[in-house]
Specification:
Shape: globular
Structural class: mainly alpha
Order of helices and strands: HHHHHHHHHHHEHEHHEHEHHEHH
Helix content: 55-70%
Radius of gyration: 22 Å
Largest sheet: 5 strands, parallel
Strand content: 5-15%
Number of helices: 19
């Protein structure tokens, strides 16, 4: 039951059930394996997740899922060498797990003679389902890119993205419609003077942008403040907006706005353990900047930007577990980028004091200037520790899990 709840996203309930199971049967390997995964996804005690993963591996060393769950937890904690070893043990047991090859590829800086690159080239000659072929192509593309084989890498990225795009539904005209609807609602609220004041609600630093914009680095920097609880990428605000009916009729606007504010505040307090200052790195919150301005006390929005060429290419080179239907076609990425920038330009006109633009290229090439400006915008007292985000021990779940463990680097600038 705990594993099912984890798969449904009910991580708190899953952890409770699995702990109860272990209280009754302390050597139940399946419970340890599943609890490792549930704790990692819960985003809380990653050290405990690793301990349960190691216990599960010790009890069932021939179970691939045991090594895989441990690898994912190790990677989230920043133990990349440990994650590599566990992914390799997973594949030694089941080499046909294409998705694990993709996970492993993100942890390795390949050279032409790397054994995993050799293994993947051999595996690529076999028969695979479209889904497995997609994962293997993404993994091989990354490895070939590391080795400087640009043409081969791009062919593989194109093939992987084509397979993913064929498997999903995405309407490229939808972002423009959403932008128009969002601004229409904001204008209506603005004309009505609609505003919710709840000084007891937690305050938020919202980091928004498009995928691969440097948002994880920004959160890594800001959350070095010991008073800040990082929520990571959550759907808390999107859920609160959806449940409030804020896009309904003007007569219902104030009630809906209050409901949204209360719902988000409750969800944040629960997830943060009562912390009153959080970072929320759900990138799609850029749709809700107007609502944030009206409902979250002391809110600040950090808009991460990046060179458009680097931005589009970086999105195209990555597989996303959920959402981001625009990410698998270069023209659709560019169109979504355009809509995003149009909306953010409008938010900055309407709420100039609320939004701080932080360019990734500037951040990594001149951190001594950009990071103090970011910290000042957040209202924090300066500390030189902010210049060393790689020392932040927090758990990371995004595709940047490897990069954020390194000192600030510039190799991703003008990567095209």
């Amino acid at each position: 039951m705990g594993a099912v709840q984890t798969s449904l996203g009910h991580y708190d309930s899953a952890v409770i059930r699995l702990r109860r199971a272990l209280a009754l049967a302390p050597d139940c390997a399946e419970a340890h394996i599943n609890l490792c995964n549930a704790l990692r996804m819960q985003g809380g005690d990653i050290d405990s997740a690793i301990r349960h993963g190691e216990h599960g591996v010790a009890l069932q060393p021939s179970t691939p899922e045991a090594h895989l769950n441990l690898a994912n937890a190790q990677g989230a904690s920043g133990d990349i060498p440990g994650a590599i070893r566990s992914y390799e043990r997973t594949l030694a047991l089941r080499p046909e797990l294409a998705e694990v090859h993709r996970h492993l590829s993100l942890c390795i800086d390949y050279t032409p003679d790397h054994p995993h690159l050799r293994d993947m080239r051999l595996l690529a000659a076999g028969k695979w389902s479209d889904t497995d072929r997609m994962h293997l192509n993404f993994a091989l593309a990354k490895a070939e890119e590391d080795c400087g084989n640009t043409a081969a890498s791009f062919r593989l990225y194109s093939a992987a993205n084509m397979l993913k795009r064929q498997a999903i539904r995405y309407d490229r005209t939808e972002p423009a419609r959403i932008r128009d609807a969002v601004l229409t609602v904001d204008t209506r609220l603005q004309n009505a003077g609609a505003m919710v004041r709840n000084n007891d609600a937690p305050s938020g630093i919202f980091i928004v942008g498009l995928p691969r914009c440097g948002s994880t680095l920004a959160e890594q920097i800001v959350s070095l403040n010991p008073m800040v609880h990082d929520l990571g990428e959550t759907a808390l605000l999107a859920d609160a907006v959806a449940h409030s009916g804020i896009t309904g009729t003007p007569a219902d606007d104030m009630a809906a706005l209050q409901d949204m504010a209360d719902s988000y505040a409750r969800a944040v307090m629960k997830k943060s353990g009562g912390n009153r200052l959080v970072t929320d790195k759900a990138l799609g919150n850029f749709w809700y900047c107007g609502l944030i301005a009206r409902t979250v006390p002391g809110a600040r929005i950090v808009h991460m930007t990046r060179n458009p060429m680097d931005q589009v290419l970086s999105v195209y080179r990555n597989y996303f577990v959920n959402g981001n239907g625009f990410a698998y076609d270069l023209n659709e990425i560019a169109a979504y980028f355009h809509e995003h920038m149009l909306l953010m330009a409008e938010w900055k006109l309407r709420y100039p004091d609320l939004v701080f633009t932080c360019d990734y290229d500037d951040l990594v090439t001149d951190p001594e200037t950009v990071i103090p400006a970011l910290i000042t915008f957040c209202g924090f007292t300066w500390d030189p520790a902010y210049l060393h985000p790689q020392k932040n021990p927090r758990t990371v779940f995004t595709a940047s899990v490897v990069q954020v463990r390194q000192p600030i680097y510039t190799t991703s600038v003008r990567g095209w």
